[in-house]
Amino acid sequence: MSPLTGVVPPSPGRMNVDFEERVDFTRLRSYRLARARAALDASDLGAVLLFDVNNIRYVSATMIGEWARDKVARYVLLTRGGEPIVWDFGSAAKHHRLFAPWIRPENSRAGMLGLRGAVAPDAGLMVRAVAEIKAELTAAGVAGMPLGVDIAETPMLLELQRAGIEVRDAQQVMLDARLIKSADEITLLSTAAAMVDGVYQDIAEALKPGVRENEIVALANKRLYEMGSDDVEAINAVSGERCNPHPHNFSDRLIRPGDQAYFDIIQSFNGYRTCYYRTFAVGRSSQSQRDAYAQAREWIDAAIELVKPGTTTDQIATLWPRATDFGFNSEMEAFGLQFGHGLGLGLHERPIISRLNSLENPIELQEGMVFALETYCPASDGQSAARIEEEVVITADGCALLTLFPAEELFVTNRY
């Protein structure tokens, strides 16, 4: 592997203590809100109305559980010069008034829009909500400016427009804000990766003939929640003939001697996510499997070598093979296999690096970005494949690696 110029960021533990400086959550909240305000001020928006739970957490430092991620039920309004107003799910508003003192008590409010249509728009909940939002925009002196919305139900967007509010895209503003990570964010991302380091040790010990893919998924979920994960979003467990092409899921397939198997562990600690692939051979490996792994390693090392401030994402994407070079008809069909993506509160933040988008629309890498690089190489045996992913943080003169479980060579578990 090519040398990395930065020191590995700390992952000191999951608790804060009085005898070491670790994550300063007050500083973290202040940093994120300041970044959001600066991005809003740099836009042509008067305010942002946020339904994306990652944006809500970034701005307000509130979260009520992963079950709410797809409900589009909670929302936050941030106006120019204003404080975040959080409309929460029922009793969560009262809870936050008690336990989240950084939100003004009068700004922790109960809100209800219909739970993705379960309460029909005819009930008037959205009409009531939009009237309240418009009153806040007027009070803040930004009612005549466009309102940015990140994601929302169609009836909510239509109701905002009926109220005479010009709706624009807020997601780009928020992704701008979330682009550069603070030292506290990087520590949380490093801690999340360290948790997965440990889970891969458990997987390496458990991966043997007769074990099923879903059993490895169960093992990983249990260990991560024991370690303090707040969300195991997904675990891909792929083995044998399922490796090529990549199905992006897991099954109940039985692991067999000589299988190649790869895993992706997507989880979060205090909201900060991992995306972390490792590939193993079970008991023994073939030359075809070793060759595929060496090629995937070569591709990812070449990318890591280029990661530094000033590099543009097209320079990295150009290093990777064309889709037709490894068995796919188009870059769209091969998307996500030779790939880079930002990490933070979201699984896919900026930069997104691939031949699909980066060659014609490159962006420049900056110090403080954190992202994952992942490569895939099918084996000549027609069914095996190698998948490697490394998470990096850009330092002043290069990058540092967050993912430390051994991956320089194909790892053979329970070797015969």
Characterize this entry briefly.
With 416 residues, the protein is α+β, with helices and mostly antiparallel strands. The protein has helices spanning 25-42, 53-60, 92-99, 125-139, 154-162, 171-177, 183-206, 213-227, 287-306, 313-319; strands at 47-50, 75-79, 85-89, 108-111, 147-149, 167-169, 231-239, 260-269, 272-273, 276-282, 339-342, 349-353, 370-378, 385-394, 399-401, 411-413. The chain is built from 10 helices and 16 strands.
Fold blueprint:
Layout (H helix, E strand, L loop, with lengths): L24 H18 L4 E4 L2 H8 L14 E5 L5 E5 L2 H8 L8 E4 L13 H15 L7 E3 L4 H9 L4 E3 L1 H7 L5 H24 L6 H15 L3 E9 L20 E10 L2 E2 L2 E7 L4 H20 L6 H7 L19 E4 L6 E5 L16 E9 L6 E10 L4 E3 L9 E3 L3
Helix pairs in contact: 1-6, 7-8, 9-10
- Biggest sheet: strands side by side, in what order? 4-3-2-1-5-6
Question: Kindly state the mean pLDDT as a whole number?
Answer: 96
| CATH fold-type name of the largest domain | Creatine Amidinohydrolase
Ends distance: 27 Å
Shape: globular
**CATH homologous superfamily title of the largest domain:** Creatinase/methionine aminopeptidase superfamily
Write down the CATH class of the largest domain.
Alpha Beta
Indicate the structural class: alpha+beta
Rg to the nearest angstrom?
Answer: 23 Å
Strand percentage: 15-25%
Low-confidence stretches: none
Would you identify the CATH architecture of the largest domain? Answer: Alpha-Beta Complex
Series of secondary-structure elements, N-terminal to C-terminal: HEHEEHEHEHEHHHEEEEHHEEEEEE
Reported for the largest beta sheet, the result is: 6 strands, mixed
H/I helix tally: 10
